[in-house]
């Protein structure tokens, strides 16, 4: 039985890794979808990230993920990361992978949209050399919402990573899983027409932001000037 379950898992993971790199237009759409997620969070008081949290932001991660399956489920997705530079300007959005494989009894589907506010300068650099497992490599706690002013306190604001998540759909079952986010240099090569990798894209000014990414840069800059 274990072998029966393992074979489709390996086949599915191999198929995911073998997928062709998306066209640039799809990569632009990914950035735009992350912008839309952030706009939706901020437009709804029950979801919105309060100004006190944005004032502490040193980096932001926006993820768009989807989970589905029966017996076997694979959560696939993507996101962007941006960092705040010493002069107060925000970097260009850098595309990242957000994948999770799981094995167990599962039924249903769930779309998950997440925003993580990082208040620590060093944490984004963990992605330079390794996959980054939220909850393992860095503890993330639920951040206070704009509608929950009583939850905003100094101890909470000092947390290195504050999480804001919205889920849609149904999902049930016991799973064994290993979730992570990781860098996606190939996607960024195509999006920015450059051979610079994540460190240079986040912390240098060597790439002129194309028109397609300027709206999310302006949005984040307005939220966390």
Topology at a glance:
Layout: H1 2-17, H2 24-43, H3 51-54, E1 59-70, E2 72-83, E3 94-104, E4 107-118, E5 141-142, H4 154-157, E6 161-172, E7 175-183, H5 185-192, H6 198-203, H7 214-223
Parallel strand pairs: 5-6
Antiparallel strand pairs: 1-2, 1-4, 2-3, 3-7, 4-6
Taking all Cα atoms into account, the compactness measure Rg is 18 Å
Largest sheet: 7 strands, mixed
Low-confidence stretches: 1-5, 14-18, 174-178
Number of H/I helices: 7
Give the % helix. 25-40%
Kindly name the structural category. alpha+beta
Strand content: 25-35%
The whole-number mean of residue pLDDT values reads 80
The 3D shape can be described as globular
The secondary-structure element order is HHHEEEEEHEEHHH
Give the domain tally.
1
- Order of strands across the biggest sheet? 5-6-4-1-2-3-7
> What kind of assembly state do the chains in view correspond to?
single chain
Distance between the termini: 55 Å
Q: How many runs of DSSP E, i.e. beta strands?
A: 7
